[in-house]
Design goal:
alpha/beta, Rossmann fold, 7-stranded mixed sheet, binds guanosine-5'-diphosphate, binds magnesium ion
Length: about 220
């Protein structure tokens, strides 16, 4: 570094992390496998961040936006039917994995399907030692639903820290967005494992995506 280019010390870590996150996600990102049950999980040899949320909340779209790929995570054909955990690797060599968790909250699911989902997700959350953080996605138009509260409770009980992420922020007016954000943040404060910072994103417009990339990298390094 030449003279005159010395950065402010207090700015360094966050800026470095943001740039590193940008570079990592612009590099190798690869679909690894789809695990229909826990016996098919990959070895727990890299840190992981899991994406959770109601079906149709925009989970696949957010994974695509964060990784800068058009369709690495496919939009599910039949909402609520996918019950697999999908793993993606980031980095060359691999540094961490993203996990696309099966969606929840679908209205007409048979009791058996819901029970199977619950058991799969709960066992994964409790036993996955490399899971550094979960992201709980919440639709900006709807705010928290009881199924989200259920998910948050499962995470609290499994002691898996999570970030709340509002999706589809482009779909609501700024005033509505602010009101929903305030309500969600307020409720998050009552949950022991919820991160205090609320992320507001739009996969469509790219809003909040760089910040989320940086947060994910910080989480896998923690
Ligand atoms: N306007 C808008 N639509 C979105 C956004 N993210 C997702 N969607 C749409 O919401 C629907 C569900 O998205 P998808 O990613 O498949 O949700 P998933 O079921 O949670 O994986 C699709 O029609 C997406 O195009 C967003 O940021 N803005
Ligand atoms: Mg999906």
């Amino acid at each position: 570094m030449s003279e005159g280019e010395i950065p402010q010390a207090e700015d360094l870590p966050q800026e470095d992390l943001t740039e590193e996150a940008r570079r990592l996600f612009a590099g190798r990102v690869e679909f690894l496998l789809s695990a229909p049950s826990l016996q098919y999980l990959p070895d727990a040899d890299f840190p992981e961040v899991a994406f959770a949320g109601r079906s149709n909340v925009g989970k696949s779209s957010l994974i695509n936006a964060v990784t800068g790929r058009k369709a690495i995570a496919r939009a599910s054909v039949t909402p609520g039917r996918t019950q697999e955990l999908n793993f993606f690797e980031v980095g060359d060599p691999t540094q961490f994995r993203l996990v696309d968790m099966p969606g929840y909250g679908f209205a007409k699911a048979p009791v058996k399907v819901v029970e199977r989902w619950r058991s799969l997700v709960r066992t994964f959350l409790r036993g996955r030692v490399v899971l550094k953080r979960a992201l709980v996605l919440v639709d900006s138009r709807h705010g928290l639903k009881d199924s989200d509260r259920d998910m948050m409770k499962m995470l609290d009980e499994a002691a898996v820290g999570y970030r709340l992420v509002l999706t589809k922020a482009d779909k609501v007016k700024a005033s509505e967005l602010a009101a929903v954000a305030q309500k969600v943040a307020e409720e998050a404060r009552k949950h022991s494992a919820a991160h205090p910072h609320l992320h507001i994103t739009s996969a469509e417009k790219g809003m909040g995506i760089a910040e989320l990339r940086t947060a994910i990298l910080a989480d896998v390094r923690s």
